[in-house]
């Protein structure tokens, strides 16, 4: 029988163990690409995937640039980059 104390201990162990696993970071990679190529492609895809967003708060407003993440990813993939996950 699972007592409340055993259940609490089990949940605590599960919570601790899930936090102790390797943290993964996703990168865009392209075999043989240089840092300059990355910067160029990132800049051009960010520019192409950007849109101006206007925020209004009461009597004042401001505009900012926002990058559409999925559109940026598709642009980078079209240039030969692909996602790769690695531990941090």
Please outline what is shown here:
The protein has 88 residues and is α+β, with helices and mostly antiparallel strands. The chain is 45% helix and 32% strand.
Description:
This protein has 88 residues and is α+β, with helices and mostly antiparallel strands. It has one domain (23-87). It has helices at 4-19, 35-48, 69-78, and strands spanning 24-29, 50-57, 60-67, 82-87. The strands form 2 sheets. Strands 1-4 form a two-stranded antiparallel sheet. A two-stranded antiparallel sheet has the order 2-3. A hairpin with a 2-residue loop joins strand 2 and strand 3. Helix 2 packs across helix 3 (69-78).
Could you outline the blueprint of secondary structure elements for this entry?
Layout: H1 4-19, E1 24-29, H2 35-48, E2 50-57, E3 60-67, H3 69-78, E4 82-87
Antiparallel strand pairs: 1-4, 2-3
Identify the notable features of this structure and list them briefly:
alpha+beta; 3 helices; 88 residues; 4 strands; flat; 45% helix
Mean pLDDT comes to: 86
Query: Helix- and strand-based class?
Result: alpha+beta
Q: What proportion strand?
A: 25-35%
State the strand order across the main sheet: 1-4
Order of helices and strands: HEHEEHE
What is the tally of helical segments?
3
The end-to-end span amounts to 40 Å
Described by the principal axes of the CA atoms, the overall outline is: flat
Low-confidence stretches: none
The tally of structural domains comes to 1
Radius of gyration: 22 Å
Number of strands: 4
Q: What can be said about the biggest beta sheet?
A: 2 strands, antiparallel
Helix content: 40-55%
